[in-house]
Amino acid sequence: MDHSLSTKCRLFLGTLLALTSVAFTDAHISMIYPLPRGHPFNPNTGFVDYNCRDAPLYDGCGGGIGKTFPCGGYPPDKQVVQSFNAGQVIDVRFGNAQFGSPGQPQLTPSSNQARHAGGLCEFSLSYDQGKTFGVFARYHGSCPDMYYDWPVKLPENLPSCDSCIFGWSWINAAATQAEFYMGCADIKIVGKSGGAGGMLPPEIANMPLRLANMPGQSYYHAPGDQYGNTKSNGPNPAEVDASMQSAAGGPDSSFQAMGTPRRPRPKYN
Ligand SMILES: [Cu+2]
């Protein structure tokens, strides 16, 4: 009887160790400002995802909601309280379950923040609850990085909306398989033109998200930087300038997929 107890005990400890090592070796990064759907810090989230908040889409992360496109499959927030003005600059920030919160280790330049040598970050808006997204800003190469703010300017000509989606999506550069990450914040936008129920301006609506590394899409990495999982040089000043002019730069001619397309991962739900 003692023997069976201690066996259970060892099994339990083994499980704990396994869970812990998964949490640290399979680390990723996610948007933490604006506060996205699914995040434990978001008081209005419709689903609290303790296990897979930082995970890419379709990677088989267990215990979560089975992250799918768009927005990780999370339900909309219970109420929309994050409000921005058309033309406002949003300083996007990133974090993860290892860094950035009270009681967690201080982020240092050499911290492993699981940024996978950056890649391509796209910032988008949806005025139809995630059916379509239009890209209004991009950062190539060094994004994401928890060390920096990533300023993006909401276009001046956005109409008002009571429940829009601010999207961050990321195609990673290295350090792990070719992945696609997405975080969605439910926001209100106070437009210069007033009146809710508008649509995305056509120049934004016509700039679709770059989709990759999920069922039905190609598998590849995006060009990144040389800093691996540690602190980078931050946002490219030219891209900050472009963002301040609300200029995504049109179709993304500067983007080149890296490497040969990879086989889909086996673990789709
Ligand atoms: Cu990762």
UniProtKB/TrEMBL annotation:
Where would one find the signal peptide in this protein?
1-27
Q: Please give the residue ranges the record annotates as the region Disordered.
A: 222-269
- What keywords is this UniProt entry annotated with? Signal
> What domain of life?
Eukaryota
Gene3D superfamilies in alphabetical order:
2.70.50.70
Query: Protein name, please?
Result: Lytic polysaccharide monooxygenase
